[in-house]
Design a protein that fits this description.
seven-stranded mixed beta sheet, alpha/beta, Rossmann fold, single chain, two-stranded antiparallel ribbon
Length: about 240
């Protein structure tokens, strides 16, 4: 049976990051298909929207409007070209190029129902700041997909990433250094941060999802990457 991205194959070409068919289609099932009630009819903010793959998936899933924020201008250009190619009506998906921490502060409180944070959370050192900014928007849902370190303690493993690698953190415009400092949280640390930010949460169970082929998604198999749906606690 064809997966979502087999039906929208342009996304296999617009980025080299995580673009194998099995990885994209498996992630679609966990991040989009399993959360349709958080998407249909909702206004969605897509943090680090990359080539627009998940913004488009949200639109296809019935989102009322999607706003993507992405730091790499070439990826925004590709995303916009893909939306035109796939006939997305004007105004349904929009993209902003810029630093996520600056741009999210410009999003009006109450204008977002659901936040996507796919693959960005472990490319920053500012986890608490990001969650506080998301909390300030007062969304009902946060769908988060992130790498995690293997520790059973609430820790953040600090790493350096090569910003020339398109799968890594983005270098700040005023920073001449090639390497960026990022933090890979453990699952207990992620739990603690989500709880502190005012979310109750549940993890997608990759091992009960009927996965037949773990090729290219071994990080999920080995619990080194997780998918979480968090619901904001009112108040």
């Amino acid at each position: 049976m064809a997966g979502f991205f087999d039906l929208h194959p342009r996304f296999y070409q617009t980025s080299i990051v995580g673009s194998t068919a099995n990885r994209l289609n498996s992630r679609y099932k966990a991040m989009i298909d399993a959360n349709r009630e958080c998407i249909a009819g909702k206004s969605v903010l897509d943090i680090a929207s990359h080539d627009g793959r998940w913004s488009y998936a949200a639109y296809d899933g019935g989102a009322r409007h999607v706003l993507g924020i992405e730091a790499r201008p070439e990826l925004v250009e590709r995303a916009e070209a893909t939306m035109r190619e796939y006939g997305v009506p004007e105004g349904r998906i929009s993209f902003v190029t810029g630093d996520i921490h600056r741009e999210i502060a410009k999003v009006p409180r109450g204008s977002v129902d659901t936040v996507f944070c796919f693959g960005f959370f472990y490319h920053t050192m500012h986890h608490a700041r990001l969650l506080a900014s998301i909390q300030e928007l007062a969304p009902k849902y946060l769908i988060l997909d992130t790498g995690v370190c293997a520790s059973d303690q609430p820790v953040i493993e600090i790493r350096k990433e090569d910003t020339d690698n398109p799968a890594s953190a983005v270098r700040a415009a005023d920073d001449p250094r090639r390497l960026a400092l990022v933090g890979l949280p453990s699952r207990p640390a992620l739990d603690m941060m989500l709880d502190y930010a005012g979310f109750r949460y549940e993890y997608f169970d990759w091992h009960q999802a009927g996965v037949e082929d773990w090729d290219t998604i071994e990080d999920y198999r080995d619990s080194l990457r997780v998918t979480v749906r968090a619901t904001r606690i009112a108040g």
